[in-house]
Amino acid sequence: MRLRTFFRHWRFALLALLALSSVSHAHAISARPGSTLLFIPYRGDDLSFSEAAYRGYERLREEGYAISVIQDAAQRSAPEMLAIIDRHYTMGVRRFILAGAEMSALATAAAKRHPDAYFATLSGNASGANVINYCLDCRQIGGLLAGQAAVRLSQSKVVGFVGGVMPVDGGEADRFKQTVLREAPDAKVLVDWTGNWSDRQRAEQLTDQQIAAGADVVVGDANVAVLAAAGRYPRVKVISWMTDASRQYKNVAACVIIHTDVVFRRFIDAVASGQFKGGNYAVDEADKVWVIVWPQQSY
Fold first, then answer.
1. Rounded to whole angstroms, how far apart are CA atoms 233 and 250?
2. Is-annotated flag, keyword Cell membrane (predicted)?
3. Most CB atoms closer than 10 Å: which of 67, 91, 187, 231?
4. Residue 233 belongs to what domain range?
5. Residues 177 and 250 in one domain
6. Number of domains in the chain
7. Judging by beta carbons within 10 Å of its beta carbon (0-12, 13-18, 19+), is residue 145 exposed, middle or buried?
8. What is the pLDDT of residue 296?
């Protein structure tokens, strides 16, 4: 009886020791030198910008990069976000990527707080010698690709662009319109804005309005409500924005996507090799970040 009790206590002690060892090992992995922390605004399956960023994260993980991700950053307060950065900095993280213009002020504050760490934003305007802003929309490549696809797909020669926030994607919408009218001068281009990335009701209303005005191709820049609303009209084709949404929506005829892993890799490798330069970098066609994908085509 006494021997059985001894072995039972010994087994519990061993399990506890293994658990502590596992926790310590997990912290060692996340905190090892050279690791990177990525913040994305929403969930990694939003069929929009956050998913594009999350897919970039997944690709780097597959390649062996030490990178972690914080989702739903837009739902957190600035003090909470700074506390997360501080905590990971203490654990040894020295590279931080903040995906989204809305995190520019946070990146600026964190960069000032940790001058020996490196920060990158996607489409942001943060400042600091240890900060680089990767401008995804400066060359309006997405608008160009969407415009070319819309001309190819449209039968009615009326096409639409349902956007989210004009100060962010206004240039892309302009390039879309210019491209369509250059290739089809007699076409009609409709552009509307929800004013908020999360306003699905407004996105649905604007999609219905554009289709009622004759659009048979609509670009879903705002959010997935554009794709869902257009799905009620069999004749209407949709161009998804940032990610391939054709798996969820059968009316998606083309996808303008971004390979965020290209940007992430560029930043991480520059820091690791001592080649980091702060400032602003305009993503160009040569970077092959923006691409057009047709459904059933691997990317």
1. 12
2. yes
3. 67
4. 141-258
5. yes
6. 2
7. buried
8. 66
| DSSP codes joined into one string, 43-63 | -TTSSSHHHHHHHHHHHHHHT
| Same-domain status, 99 and 159 | no
- Taking CA atoms, 236 is separated from 137, 148, 233, 240, in Å, by 27, 17, 6, 13
Angle, helices 260-272 vs 49-62, to 10°: value is 50
Query: Is 43 in contact with 102 (CB distance < 8 Å)?
Result: no
Cα-based angle 65, 101, 163 (whole degrees, multiple of 5):
110
- 245 shares a domain with 145: yes
pTM score, whole prediction: 0.84
Q: Are 147 and 240 members of one domain?
A: yes
Question: Which 8-state DSSP code applies to residue 220?
Answer: E
Site of tokens 């039972």: 8
Mean pLDDT of 207-230: 97
Confidence of residue 122 (pLDDT cuts 50, 70, 90): very high
- How does DSSP classify residue 91? T
Run of H or E including 102: none
Within this chain, do residues 47 and 147 fall inside the same structural domain, yes or no? no
The token pair that represents 188 in the structure block = 């009609």
